[in-house]
Every structure is written in structure tokens, then in C-alpha cells.
Task: structure prediction
Amino acid sequence: MADNKTPFVQFSEVQKTYDGEILVVKDLNLDIEAGEFVTMLGPSGSGKTTCLMMLAGFETPTEGRIMLGNRELNNVPPHKRGIGMVFQNYALFPHMTVAENLAFPLEVRKLSKSEIEGKVQRALDMVELTSFGGRRPGQLSGGQQQRVALARALVFEPDLVLMDEPLGALDKNLREQMQYEIKHIHEKLGMTVVYVTHDQSEALTMSDRIAVFNDGRIQQLAPPADLYERPENAFVAQFIGENNRLLGTVEEDDGRNCAVRVDGRMIRAVSVNHAGRGSPTTLSLRPERVTLNPEDGSLPNIFDAKVEELIYLGDHIRARVSTCGDDEFIVKVPNAHGHQTLAEGAEVRVGWAMEDCRALDA
Amino acid sequence: MAQMTDTAGPVMTTADGTPLKQALARATRRSKIRAFLLVAPLLLFILVTFIIPIFDMLSRSVSNPEVQEAIPETAALLADWDGQGLPSEDVFASMAKELSKKENRREIGRMAARLNFEDSGFRSLLNKTQRRIDRVKEGPYKDALIAIDKDWGETRVWKIIQLMSPPTTLSYYLNALDRTYDQDGNVVMQPDWKQIYVQLFLKTIYVSLGVTVACLILAYPISYLLATLPPSRGNLLLILVLLPFWTSLLVRTTSWIVLLQTNGVINDTLVWLGVISDENRITMIYNMTGTVIAMTHILMPFMVLPLYSVMKTISPSYLRAARSLGANPLVAFVRVYMPQTVPGVGAGSILVFILAIGYYITPALVGGQDGQLISNFIAYHMQKSLNWGLAAALGTILLAGVLAMYWLYDRIVGIDNMKLG
Ligand SMILES: Nc1ncnc2c1ncn2[C@@H]1O[C@H](COP(=O)(O)OP(=O)(O)OP(=O)(O)O)[C@@H](O)[C@H]1O
Ligand SMILES: [Mg+2]
Result:
């Protein structure tokens, strides 16, 4: 993002350690534009919640600064940051009714009674819980509690809303439904959202941009399609979607493309992130980009393979084959009209285009 | 057509046709029996050591067999007496006869003790009469008895005997509430110098309330700290809080004596620091102050534990949520955290209050003259004055008070909301 206008949220060179020994967050730089929906995605323990808590003010960065708008946040207490937050376990106040929960942020801001009533009612309407104002959180289903938590984080109209795995406790169907609802509310209200999840399909569905976390660092920050199509390192390729990995050594490299020796064979690939000739590299290749039994000469990479296992999945068939010294090589065969019938143990050939095969760090 | 049943609808049955309810009852019977067998020993224990004594106490507080057993005939005759002047010659005759029976000695002794609770002249009157009754060979008995002791010529004496004749009485309760029967059987206040129990009940309640509030104020922050500390350090502190439980009650109480007495550690330190002069040492023990301090200390764990166990379950994310919604730390604590601790506050307070209201050993040791509470007087009547009926009546009133507290709490907070652990 080579914009010269200042970003809405800015982490610069932020580091965090809890115990003085291990850096949980290492050198975090992240700019978020106003109105963006940014997701922090990463495996457990990668520091996502820690980042969110630093932004919300419940943890202080050990090093570096966090800016919100033009304010430096480091010394602003949480209640003065004006950031809405949805917690994983919702944190609805059990001794208050739904309406009282929603009124809470407005009461502490000393709004007038009538104003509060109006806003609470609108918030309830927004999450389709109009008639539930008098209930206690304990009398609501998980999904309803989730919506109340969302409404409560939005009712005081914050410019920035943080959500830490808000859908973690819901079942799959409800989760998908809520993903769309949150997305729609975001589109309607236009606030900035920082969302934390370790569910990649959730991240792909909802986000404008995704920051993939691992080991206290952002591995890649990109829109969902880029992340999937053009992973920049082996971790991202592996973490997002399904991926075939082939380990080899770079033999030739012209800066854009390269030839990699894998198990005695030469594979042509796009140079993305390797250290040049003679260095080890990981080739990344999506299973759906592999063609089964291509015509000779139609693709630069064509190799012999043996079918090890077939799994029928309705719309496609997953074939595990062994090729190029890898017996975990997955091919997705679309279940299209006139698709090839395969048998386990059969000798086949697999091929792929050079652009689909990315040479990444080892 | 399904038959109409109470539940308005066809009866649900299992595959083999037994009604579901019956099948369920059969299936759960075994586990019910098992559950009963598991609690049976404790139930028996409680029955023998708790329920039966309580009923014994209740019956003792109203039972009044002494006069009946010692002088049954006289009591029967007296029942018809109109209470004017003196009873008839028959009554005097029967009294003389029954007092002279040698085999009745023990019963008469008990009657004397019983009547002495009502009027302190009775023991000597009866003893004297019994000693000299053998000299009276024939009537008129009225004159003979009055000759032995002129008290027999007083209407009041006979009234008291008449009043105490029925096998049950409320007089112990009246006594316990500083009231008594007058000559005509009306309930009146005790003379001023005998009015102590109502004052004492009130004092006991005030002290218990004071101790409860002191415990709450001191325990709340500690419990909060314990509940929010990381478990490793929290557990250590909790053990320190529970440490008093491992020390004998007597040791704890006497250590307060060492600390608080006039020549104790605290006074010495204050004098040494020059805060007070040597002549003006503060009396902190053998009075109410000592009682309150020592009881607060001893009952503290009973407040900390329920508070801690409730606070432990309150997720810190509530406070965070409140802060993120714009509440400053104080508002967040008061409006979000404290209401959620009400079950613990209620449980702890009721526990401490109930324990305090019946507390005996600490006031006895450090209370001195004015630091005595109602249970010390109950003990006094059990052990020294041997007025078990009065002790039972005082105890019953105490029990009723505690039950009333419990009921009140249930009405206001709800017992279901109470959380002890
Ligand atoms: N309060 C704390 N004290 C000490 N260490 C902590 C604390 N909170 C988190 N950590 C450590 O920091 C690291 C990152 O934790 P964080 O909660 O940010 O991970 P996360 O990415 O949110 O993981 P998850 O997906 O499981 O929620 C972990 O190794 C964790 O053990
Ligand atoms: Mg987390």
C-alpha cells in the first residue's frame, strides 16, 4: 500500500513479550485503512490475540507504537480508546438484560434516556432480535448471544471494531450464516474491522485483506485471492488451502522463472522467493491446477505417476499419487462429463503449467 | 380413539407396552436406592446428633413437669382455686401430706429448684417446711404451715405454685424475653434489674452484624486478589488465608489476648512509639472491642471462601468488555463485577452472621464483663444455674432468629443464588 495518506490503524515495529524471555510478537508492522475489514489469521499461539489486546489496550506493547487515527495509543486507557470489541465467549453481562447490556456503553457515555432507548432499539433491529430486549443472556441461544455481543460492540458507533474469534463457539451452519451477517453489517456501517480467526475459510469469505501470522510475525498481508493464488512463502502456501510441496534445488534461474531439480527430474517454476542458483527451494502447486494425462508437449512439466488412493467426494475426486519422489501428491480430478475413470495402482501422467508452480523459500 | 387421561392425550408407552412413566420410574429406582444408601449413614448421624437434640431442646423449653410430679394432688386441687385470698384447708392439708412423703424427696427438690427460678424464696421455704413438717401431726394444716413459715400465708406464693402446676408453660420464653407472670397470671415486664435478655439479644445481633460487615470489608479485596492472581500464587495465598483453620481456636483466641491486653504487644508498641502515654494504655480486650476483633479474625475464612469461589468463576473478560465499552475501571467494577459477586457476598454474610450469632468460646475468653453474648448466657444456664428450661428457650429463640434470617435472605436474594463453593 504505497498510499501517502496516513492509515487509520498503524502498528509500527511493535514487539511484545510477557515473560521477558520469549517475544510473542516480533517486529509487527501493519497499516489498516479506514473502513477496511482485515483478518488476522494464523495457527494457535501465533500472537493474534496478543496483537488485538494491544490494540484494545489490555496489553501494552513492549516496544514500538500503535496509532489510531492521529492518536498514539500507547498511553490511552482502554475505556478512552472508543474501540468496540466482540469477545470469543461474548462476555455479555449475565446480570443485565439484553437491552441493559446494549444500553451500558451509552449510559457510561451519559447519553439521554430517550437517545439510549432509540439506539438500543435500532441495534436490536439490526441483529434481528427486536423482541428479545427483556431477556437475560442466559436465556438466549449461542447464535443469539453472538448477535447481542455484536450489537453491543456497535451500538456506540465506534470507528473501529475488534473481534477475537467471535464465531468460534458456533456450529458450522450458524457460523457461515453469521459470517455473512457480519460482512453485511460491515458493508452497511462502513466501520473498520480487525478480525481474528484461525479458520481460513472464514478469513477468505469475509476479509478485504488477510494478515497471515506465524511465530509472532506477519508472513503475508494480502487480499484473499492473492493469498491463495500467489503465496509468498512456504508457510502461507501450506497454511492457506491445500498445497502440494516438492522440495528441490534451484539449477537455473533467470530472475522470473527457474528450473528446479526434484528427485532427479527438472521442474520448471516461477521464481518467487528463493535464494538463487544452488539454493534449496519448496515448490508449491495447488492440487486443482494439476492435469491428469495431458497431451504430450502441451505443458512444460509432465511426469509419470502412480495412483495410490482415490477418494470420491461428489463434485470431484481426490487422487493421491506418487510422483517426483513424493507419494503425498494430491490431484483433484473434476467430476465432469466424460472424466477419466481411474483405478488404484494405475500408471498415469500428471502435468502442470509453469505459472502454477511457485518456487518458494525452503 | 385414545382414551382421555389426566394428561389429556394418549399415554406414551415403550415398545413392549409399559407406560413410559412407569418404565422410567423402574429404571431410576435402583439409582435412587443407591443414592439413599449412600447418604443413610450421614442421615442417621444427623438425626441422632442434631435433629433429636433440637426437638429435645424445643420440648425442654416448654416442659414443666416438676410441680406435677412432686405434689400431684395439691396441684389438682389448686387448679380449682379462684386465686382470691388463700386456698382452702383441703389444699393446705394435701400440701402438708405430700411434702411429708419421704419417697418424694427428689421430686420436691426439683420442684424447689424450678419454683426458685420464678421467685428466689422458694427453695428455702420448701426446705424449711420439709424439715419441720414431721412435727405437724394434725390439722388445721393452714395454721400449721403458716406457723412453719409465714410465707405460706401469702396469696402470691400459692399463685406461683398454681401457675407452675400445668405440665407445660411459656414462662421460660417470657423469662427469655424479660417478661414474667404477675400474681394474676398476666404477662408483665420483669423488674428493671432483671431485664437482661432482650438487651443481650439485640447486642448479639449488633455484634454479629458488625462482625459480618467487618469480615466482608476485609475479605472482599483479599478474595478479589486471590481470584485474579495467577493460580500458582493464588493458591499459596489461599493457604495462608486458611491457615487459621489449622490452628486451634483456643490458640488463636489466646494469641489475641497476648496482642491486645493492657501490657500486650500492641499497647507496648504504641507506648514505645510515643503514640500513647504509659498511663493511657488502651483497653482492647476483656470488653466488646476484644470480642469483635477476635471474632472477625476467626470468622474471616468463612467469608473469604464463598467470595473466592464465586469470584473465581467470573471471567476477566467481563471487566475487559466493560472497559472496552467505555466504562472507567471504577464504574466497570461497580456495575459489572460487583453484581456478579452477590451470591458470594450473600453466602459469606449469612454464614458468618449465623456463626457469629451463636459464638461462644471467643466472647467467653476475651469478652470480659460486657463482651458476653447470648450464647454465653445459654451456657451459663446450662452449666451454672442449671435452668435448662431457660437455656432451651433462649436457644430456641436464637434458632428461630436464624431461620428467620434465612427466610428473609431467600425472599430478597434467593437461596438458589447462594454459592458456597
Ligand atoms: N497473559 C499471558 N502471559 C504469558 N504468556 C501469554 C499470555 N497470553 C498469551 N501468552 C503467550 O503468547 C503466545 C501468543 O498468544 P496469543 O493468545 O496471542 O495467541 P493466539 O494467536 O491468539 O492463539 P489462539 O489462536 O490459540 O487464540 C502464546 O505462546 C501464549 O502462550
Ligand atoms: Mg487467541
